[in-house]
Amino acid sequence: MKNAVGREIPAEALAVELKNGRKYEPYQGKGYRDGKYIKKAGPTTKIYENPQESKILPSIRDAVIACGIKDGMTVSFHHHFRNGDYIVNMVMKEIVDLGIKDITIAASSLGDAHDPIAEYIEKGIVTGIQTSGIRGKMGDVVSHGKLKTPAILRSHGGRVRAIEEGDVHIDVAFIGAPTSDEYGNARALGGKGDCGVLSYAVPDSEYADKVVVITDTLVPYPNFPPSIHGVNVDYVVKVDEIGNPKKIASAAARMTQNPRDLMMAENTAKVIAACPWFKDGFSFQTGAGGPSLAVNRFLEPLMDAKGIKMAWAIGGITAAICELQRKGKVGKIIDVQDFDTGAIEDIRTNPNHFEMTASEYANPANKGAFVNKLDFVVLAALEVDTDFNVNVITGSDGVLRGAPGGHPDTAEGAKCCVIVTPLTRGRMATICEHVVTVTTPGDCVDVVVTDYGTAVNPRRKDIIEALDAAGIKHVPIKQLQEKAYSLVGKPDDLQFKDKVVAILEARDGTILDVVKEIKPFEF
Amino acid sequence: MSLPRPKPEKFRLRRTMMFMNAQKPGLIKDAYIYGADSIMLDLEDAVAENQKDSARFSLYHALKTIDYGDTEVIVRINGLDTPHWKEDIRVCVAGGCDGIRIAKTESAQDVITVDQAVTEAEKEFGVEVGRTLLMAALESPKGVLNAYEICKASPRLFGVALSGGDYRKCMQVKVIPGGIEMLFARGLMLNAARAAGIQCFDTVFTNLNDDEGFRAEVKQNVEMGFDGKSLINPKQIPIVHEMLAPSQKEIAEAEKIVRAYREHASEGVGVFTLDNGKMIDIAFVPGAERVIKLAKASGIYEGDL
Q1: For site-directed labelling of A375, which of A227, A447, B109, B146 has its Cα 20 to 30 A away?
Q2: What's phi and psi for B282, nearest 5 deg?
Q3: What is the pLDDT of residues A353-394, one digit of tens each?
Q4: B177 is in which domain, residue-wise?
């Protein structure tokens, strides 16, 4: 069956069973579930009526046993420690050592730090993966059909919806935390490996049957104000290290000096400034990649010229936006993740820099997340096609190596979603006829800025008019794609087998696309 | 692709000439995207002595395969005191670049020598004789003093440029904010170029972190009457274009002159008075047309001339 972005969704994918019995549908277009109702699936939690001094257990192994983890269960993790994370591998090692199998990992994201999981997948111990990001060896083995069930890939907002709706049920959540007290009140500041916020772990703490906080820094009770509330936590474990602090918080991303990136960033800022929403009190989100990050720098003089300020910025936060706030040009920063030490330092001391939950950030099924009020978002892409569909998950070889993250959430929510990407990367055309995998549907993408020109989605007549009025040149996206193919050639189609190895969920829980098992290329 | 390139226009708009190493495919493959009027592919100082041949090879294939569109493609060849320049010229002509920048020009004879080699190469490769344009870079006190003779030396020569690095070394001076150390060279060269009826370009500004200094220098260039400037980084391009753009008042005045001249000319009148009392004759027209052309190139012209 073809969905609203023209992708054939095989019956095999539509038949995948969700925990609550909900049936998968193909993607129907943006706003499909707006106004409908959701029945939230509450966890089954243990009563602690009698006073207890402490929830601390001596080891992760003890926690695994105390939580009663058994074959077929689902365990969850967050990705605030990024590539410095030790938690996933430490916990999974204990589960595997205890001989437990048929485990589903439901993480907010997984990365290169989790290569050891690939082995558990190959051995058939880990049989399900639900995540935003999948990379490295794990991406490779899943793409080669080694995972027993299709991986389910969700946006950050889509994950919260899936947890709340009960599409996925978390039996045990393992939450790494920079600090915790003996009752599990956990914070992301004050420890050895601070990550700033714990936003993505909040739904896990509220919807898992059992919750374990793992920290390397125990602090006196009460550790307030907490990101993870002790009332939701069953056990606390102290380990030597939750992660590698250097990789948890990297130094501030250096502003790119690449002239190509700078030109694209400047043109993106000009597009933003030409839109009617660029007025005093506007809201903004941008990523940490080269050209996206540099947009901050080019936006500032345009704001000054118009005498306006930004009311709030959200998203993954970098030092760049904190710097802009220190200059008095941003009202509030609402933070779901910190990308560098500058952002972490800022939230430590800045009274106008706040933590929010993943649901507040991007959940499409709550009563209105931040993304719904966002004016502008600037995003990157691996590929964009002539229907404005974006791929951020499969590489040019068809193998899983990315994460939708907040991309589809902010793209749908924002009034103006700008994708900034070079026209080609090496031999690959970034602007192409058909993306390998649709991860953000074209009906949510408004403007594409490349080094060879800007294209506006023809659905957005208002933005076209605004750019025309400002004298900003734009071309049909087809023209960019043709230019790309004239430079690097038209790529042969990738070759896949029939088996579905991953399902790309739209944020509303319909199926946007599937990824199939990769077939070695035959000439 | 629309290769070979069309016959170059001798007096086109050349506000910005961006240098780049001809040896770096990543740079030259699409250097036109930054919007410079001309790009300057360098075979000279940017290329190490033992890499001259590979740079020529990469240049030739770039010229043959990349569609640079409206962007003028000029090549800086090695000096006449090196063993490379003749082969450089053959590659430029065979590849079909628009123009050649002669490094370290000291005399009219240098231009004539290059002109002759270009003619030979054009014959060798079956290119229309006279197609390839030239520009001369003055890099020494001697070159500056011979500016007028140099400017008149060849019908191929569209302009003359100053190369500050070498010139300052010869003069034993440093870069001085305000440009007092270059005042004589700039002034003499401009005067020579105008006397010979060719264009004149200023030297590069190398401190990429000094935006203010760069703007001050471009402002001075505009005030002195330069047609354009050599650049070393794409981020300098929009600044020069912005600062060279005529004001709306200048555009309106130029429009008035061009329209009035056309009307009067069709009635056989050569001299007339504008409504502001200013007397206009044919001598004003090229200047006014230049303003309109600049306004169009700057993307700020909304009229229909």
Answers
A1: A227
A2: -60, -25
A3: 999 999 999 999 999 999 999 999 999 999 999 999 999 999
A4: 16-244
Give dist(CA B192, CA B52) in Å, integer: 33
pLDDT at B279: 80
CATH number, residue B95: 3.20.20.60
The residue among B264, B253, B251, B248 whose CA lies nearest residue B292 is B251
Q: Which of residues 75-94 of A touch B (CB under 8 A)?
A: none
Mean pLDDT of A88-114: 97
Q: Are residues B230 and B283 in the same domain?
A: no
- The whole-angstrom distance between residue A431's C-alpha and the CA centroid of its chain comes to 22
pLDDT tier, A351 (very low <50, low <70, confident <90, very high otherwise): very high
Helix ranges, A249-357 (H)? 259-274, 290-306, 319-326, 341-349
For residue A39, give both structure tokens.
């029945």
Residues A115 and A118: their CA atoms lie apart, in Å, by 6
Q: Single out the residue of B46, B75, B71 nearest to residue B59, CA to CA.
A: B75
pLDDT tens digits along B35-48: 999 999 999 999 99
Helix (H, G, I), strand (E, B) or coil at A420: strand
Q: Are residues B172 and B281 in the same domain?
A: no
Same domain, residue pair B132 and B277: no
ipTM above 0.95, yes or no: no
End-to-end CA distance of chain B: 31
Hey, of B19, B20, B33, which one would you mutate to test binding to chain A, going by the most A CBs within 10 A of its CB?
B33
Asked whether residue B269 is assigned to any structural domain, the reply reads: yes
Smallest CA-to-CA distance from A502 within A38, A49, A146 is with: A146
Question: Can you say how many angstroms the Cα of residue A69 is from the centroid of all Cα atoms in its chain?
Answer: 27
A192 touches chain B (CB under 8 A): no
Instruction: Compute CA distances A295 → A381, A433, B163, whole Å.
Output: 16, 27, 35
Decide if A259 and B235 are in contact by the 8 Å CB cutoff: yes
Amino acid at the residue A9 = I
